[in-house]
Amino acid sequence: MEGLVVKSTGSWIKVRLEDGSILDCRLKGQFRIRDIKHTNPLAIGDRVDLEPDLQHGNAMITRIHPRENYIIRKATKLSKVSHIIAANLDHAYLIVTLAEPRTSTGFIDRFLVTAAGYYIPASLVFNKTDIYGPELMRQLDDLREIYQKAGYPCLAVSALDGTNIEELKMLLKGKINLFSGHSGAGKSALINAIQPGLNIKTREISEAHQKGMHTTTYAEMHMLSGGGFIVDTPGIREFGLIDFEMSEIPRCFPEMENLLPYCQYKNCTHTHEPGCAVKNALDSGEVSRLRYNSYLSILNDS
User: From the centroid of its chain, how far is CA 196?
Assistant: First the structure.
């Protein structure tokens, strides 16, 4: 049998079969030691082969199909070991909030660079617009202009009052979509608004620290009635890059990659070289200084 991994709690893995049924499975021991670079040999979105154990009503996963793509993050802040968030994605959405809690542009750019590095199209979804006053709405407009100019689709929504939820549903239709972001950004509430009836647990943010409290414990794939899936992930506090060479970073900023052919040097890093089209565009305002500062920060970390 073949199936799609929709949830993993470590010891048990839930796999959706072609007929829509869900089977509890275990992973054959050989996969646990094959690839020590990742904390999890199996990820949500993996396609797998199964050997059924009809007597106990479960199955053993015997083969993981080759992945079309996957997205990873550092297992912990100082770790060199990575954790696969999800595999075989059509699109990745970062749920961004400008307050309660605030998502920094550094976090946004590290997420977008990671998605680009693994060839996954990405968009930004600005949530909680129902709580934004005039100043936050101005910030929202400024950020949308920056990221849309850089080549990233942006959508402003509210899970609470339903703003642009129907438009978001249309974007998700027929695709495997990843939702990621900080704890408290409203990923679970947003999924509940998109697919009523899932009743995913939600929690208020911490009043003391203005940070979200973890609601989703394990990544899980939810089927959409209109077609497609959403992968709901646990909140991420920091998004550290891993397995990136310095030479790869410029291509992960679309606005800079587009200008590279106009640079004097083919391997221009856009930092110190003469005849750099990116630095010229920075001076003219064509490239955002906010994005460029994030680029320099990521270069220094790589």
Answer: 22
Domains and CATH numbers, the chain: 2-64 (2.40.50.140), 70-232 (3.40.50.300), 246-301 (1.10.40.50)
For residues 297 and 106, the answer to whether their CB atoms sit within 8 Å is yes
Of 276, 272, 274, whose CA–CA distance to 299 is shortest? 272
- Best CA proximity match to 169, nearest among 184, 181, 159, 180: 159
Q: Helix, strand or coil for residue 201?
A: coil
pTM: 0.89
Amino acid type, 211? K
Tokens found for residue 216: 């989703």
Cβ atoms of residues 94 and 105 within 8 Å:
no
Which positions of the chain have pLDDT values less than 50? Answer: 33, 205-216
Helices (H) and strands (E) in the chain, counts: 7, 13
Residue 276 DSSP SS3: coil
Cβ-count burial of 110 within 10 angstroms (0-12 exposed, 13-18 middle, 19+ buried)?
buried
DSSP-derived letter for residue 82 is E
**What is the SS3 assignment for 64?**
strand
The answer to whether 26 and 42 have CB atoms below 8 angstroms apart is no
Q: How far apart are CA 150 and CA 35, in angstroms?
A: 35
Other C-beta atoms closer than 10 Å to the C-beta of 55 total: 6
Between CA 222 and CA 232 the distance in angstroms is: 8
Query: pLDDT tens digits, residue range 99-128?
Result: 999 999 999 999 999 999 999 999 999 999
What is d(CA 195, CA 282) in angstroms, rounded to the nearest whole number? 42
Q: Which of 10, 23, 11, 6 is nearest to 86 (CA)?
A: 6
What whole-number distance in Å separates Cα of residue 147 and Cα of residue 75?
Answer: 28
